[in-house]
Amino acid sequence: MPFVQFKDIGKNFQLDESIKMLRTNIEFSGENIQTICITSCLPNEGKSSIVARLAMSMAEAGKKVVLIDGDLRNSVMLGRYDVQGDDLKGLSHFLTGQGTLAECMCQTDYPTMQMIFSGPETPNPAELLGGKRFAALLEAMRNNYDYVLIDTPPLGSVIDAAIVARQCDGVALVVSSGEISYKFAQSV
User: Fold this and answer.
1) Ordered strands of the 82-84 beta sheet
2) How many domains in the chain?
3) Other CB atoms closer than 10 Å to residue 171's CB: what's the count?
4) Which residues of the chain fall below pLDDT 50?
5) In this structure, is residue 61 part of a structural domain?
6) 84-117: buried (b, 16+ CB within 10 Å) or exposed (e) per residue?
């Protein structure tokens, strides 16, 4: 199983405290909040960094968590982390039947945290994310993890996040402070 190094991404006290607050709010939202779609209004608002730090925070708190890179169009996750191991398969491999779930899983340096990278781009990401294989994946993850965090493309760009959100228990919208208006955030 490929291995992902997360612990060396740097510490930021204020950001870490904000992530802990987000984690606590999710934990107190109820037992039925298990699968969470993380999205943003526009690109470059920091959602991929936020979801990775949220997954690490949950793992540090002893929760069993899987981070799924659901951005099948323009993923940034693989380029950000040190991945060791051969024959890395991703979500698109699983959704197109070119890989098993076990082949797509990556262990991280947090014992209770695993990850699935997006895999290569596909011509039909919305159809794959709305299909039976993705629904089956989410069901399998619900049965094996305390939390399933899914990083998706921005809502203002493509329909993918809305398709994933419909299948999740909750959605977190990352909004860039001072750059995105309240009105625009509500409209997406």
Assistant:
1) 82-84, 3-5, 105-108, 113-116, 65-69, 147-151, 35-40, 170-174
2) 1
3) 18
4) none
5) yes
6) eeeebbbbbbbbeeebebeebbbebebebbbbbb
